[in-house]
């Protein structure tokens, strides 16, 4: 039996490997996951939430170049390397876009950047605020590969950091939906009768409420925030899992190996967890991939409505909300770039779901 199970797994794996789009989507999702975990390593702006604002250079096109003067702060912030790696650097320095500068005697004279042909203000600062009285290490050319948003923040950094929310909400929401859905579906399908009637009533009531409306209600009840959105989305996605598990168990519980397990005196918990669930996980895996995509879209919708991840957190949905007006103002990339990110990640999960469905189909 073990050899049979292993051979079926190997056949499914071989079929999956032959599906180009499935394999491509798998590696794409792994890449996005890696980037989302180590976002601050790849982001040009590694401050917390990539929230370094430069209002003088707002809404600039991709590839924009500017000279940036960094004014060191006297405030010393203690931050360990782990916190800096995964949660960003607590930046107390001030970055100022400048158009020109000169060192005269013991002062640095610089002219602030001004767009639209305006003349920037000329200011001076003493050299002793810089280590070793050398300001040249604090003046450098900075390139914004994706341009800047309406607050002058680096759009590439915001996109990279925003991937964390969109990616991890899929894992948390799917995990919650699996825990609740498998439990409810197993109990309903295995025991039947009044238990099944009560659980099906709960499922039908939950199913009848529009998903986005239910998420909004749960979010408002739990409060706005990072984890509240994760929980709210997860609590609305268990219904589909429960219905699939219930249907599979109803058709499986009369199989001979289940009858044999009962004859051997195994309790219901062992029969469900050790004998039934391992044999019905194929459709659950496929629906979980679809739920990943749905969770990303729901979170993006919530952020667009302003009840998802709250500022200054970077979120793809919130970035679209902040910049959708710019589509008609000649700067559509501010909304299109995060929109393409959402589309590509959702498409990857849908493609891998289709590939898993084909690979796990025993009839083909």
From TrEMBL:
<comment type="similarity">
    <text>Belongs to the binding-protein-dependent transport system permease family.</text>
</comment>
<protein>
    <submittedName>
        <fullName>Peptide transporter</fullName>
    </submittedName>
</protein>
<feature type="transmembrane region" description="Helical">
    <location>
        <begin position="20"/>
        <end position="43"/>
    </location>
</feature>
<keyword id="KW-1003">Cell membrane</keyword>
<keyword id="KW-0812">Transmembrane</keyword>
<feature type="transmembrane region" description="Helical">
    <location>
        <begin position="333"/>
        <end position="356"/>
    </location>
</feature>
<dbReference type="InterPro" id="IPR025966">
    <property type="entry name" value="OppC_N"/>
</dbReference>
<keyword id="KW-1133">Transmembrane helix</keyword>
<feature type="transmembrane region" description="Helical">
    <location>
        <begin position="226"/>
        <end position="245"/>
    </location>
</feature>
<dbReference type="InterPro" id="IPR050366">
    <property type="entry name" value="BP-dependent_transpt_permease"/>
</dbReference>
<dbReference type="GO" id="GO:0005886">
    <property type="term" value="C:plasma membrane"/>
</dbReference>
<keyword id="KW-0813">Transport</keyword>
<dbReference type="InterPro" id="IPR035906">
    <property type="entry name" value="MetI-like_sf"/>
</dbReference>
<dbReference type="Pfam" id="PF00528">
    <property type="entry name" value="BPD_transp_1"/>
</dbReference>
<keyword id="KW-0472">Membrane</keyword>
<feature type="domain" description="ABC transmembrane type-1">
    <location>
        <begin position="163"/>
        <end position="353"/>
    </location>
</feature>
<feature type="transmembrane region" description="Helical">
    <location>
        <begin position="276"/>
        <end position="298"/>
    </location>
</feature>
<feature type="transmembrane region" description="Helical">
    <location>
        <begin position="165"/>
        <end position="191"/>
    </location>
</feature>
<dbReference type="GO" id="GO:0055085">
    <property type="term" value="P:transmembrane transport"/>
</dbReference>
<feature type="transmembrane region" description="Helical">
    <location>
        <begin position="198"/>
        <end position="220"/>
    </location>
</feature>
<dbReference type="Pfam" id="PF12911">
    <property type="entry name" value="OppC_N"/>
</dbReference>
<dbReference type="InterPro" id="IPR000515">
    <property type="entry name" value="MetI-like"/>
</dbReference>
